[in-house]
Each structure stands twice: as C-alpha cells, then as structure tokens.
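hiii, so i know i said id send this last week but things got crazy w the move. better late than never?? heres the sequnce for the chain we talked about at the cafe, plus the structure i predicted for it. fair warning i was half asleep when i ran it
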Amino acid sequence: MKPEIVCLMMSSLDGGLRPSKWTESPDGGRREWTALYQKAHEDLQGDAWIVGRVTMAEMAKGEPHPPQAAGSAERPNHFADREATNYAIALDTSGKLHFTRPDIDGDHVVVILGSDVPDTHLAELAADGISYIVSPSPEIDLSAALGVLEQELGIRKMLLEGGAAINGAFFAAGLIDEFYLLVAPALDGSGGQPVVTFDGGLAGKTRLSLISAETKDNGAVALRYKVHA
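okay and structure toks below
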C-alpha cells in the first residue's frame, strides 16, 4: 500500500518554475498566483507534502551540528512524532540537509535517505526531533519509502511539490495518481527546466486523462489529470 499522490505544480506558459523570473500580467502577478497555489495546496487536504533536497534546503536553513556523544543510530527508521497532523517530507539521498527545528510551518519533518548516510547524520536528525527513513539501497527506493509512510505514520494522501527531476522519477515509477497543474499567464524566457523531466523520457511509462480544466482568478488556469501507470 502507498498514499494517494497528487503532483501539484505551478508553471508559467513556457514551463518556468520560479515565479521570481516571470513576466507580469494585467490580471495579476506573482503574489496572486502564489496565493492561488497555496489555496490549491490547502483545498487538496493532503496529510503530507514531499519535496527534494534543494527545495527543502531553502526552508530548513540549518548547518551541520552532529551531537558530540552520538551512539549508534537507529536504523532503518526513526519516528519522533507519530501523532502529527501533517508531515513535511524531504528526499535527501546522501544526508546534506540540516534543520533548525523539527517542523516546517507546523508540519513535522520526515527525511528519506539512502543507505550510505553516516550514523552521525542520523544522530543529528534524531537529536533535533526529526523523523527519518533509511532506504535499503544507496539510491532511495521511492515505493518502499511510501509504504513505510503509509504503514507507520498513517499518511493516506500526499502532495508531490518537488522539482522537475523528482516529479519525473515519481511519474516513471508509476506512483502518481493525479497531476494538478496551475498555469499562470506569464512567460519565463530563461530556458529553465520544464515541470517534469526524466532521463530517457516518459513515453510508454505513463498516460494522462483530463479530469477538469478551470479558469481561476488573476488569469490562471487549473488543469487536473488522472494519471494511469
């Protein structure tokens, strides 16, 4: 079993993912479009949201601080809070994320790591009150990690809000149930990454069927697709 996964993204018309680089519109701007995204996030009522290391680093903002007297670290899993209402989940294969607190805006942090992560890093996370899951392999086994999240923490619905590469990995593994894309009336023009990328492409790996297309405030459009593995 795994949680239901909705990939929630917002992009410009040419696929840009960073609103700070977008053109403005007479119908609205970055502030209004970001508010639309946040409302979609809330309306979807996920138990958790998941991002990659780079995205989470912008929110974690910590420096390395392993405990001075760290013993053997608990493996493969450590759960500091099983009663949280919502969870903020990060994929961090080699253990580069460091935190200043065990939550992001009240959502308890869970880090998913590769098997090569050192015990000192796991001890740091545990001392900070952060939960973690260590994958059985050096590269993160997404399907196995999702099963642990569902079984151990009761996560039934998760919002995937990562970058293009992580989104592509989830699509390629057949783990996404719905793709919800907010398109803003803006252009990026800087040649940034599209919403989804995967080495070798996704042809033959996934299919989409339209659920709805809805005009939103400030010139944005919400496109929702059912994903078929």
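btw Residues 30-43 form the longest helix (14 residues). thought thatd interest u
miss u guys!!
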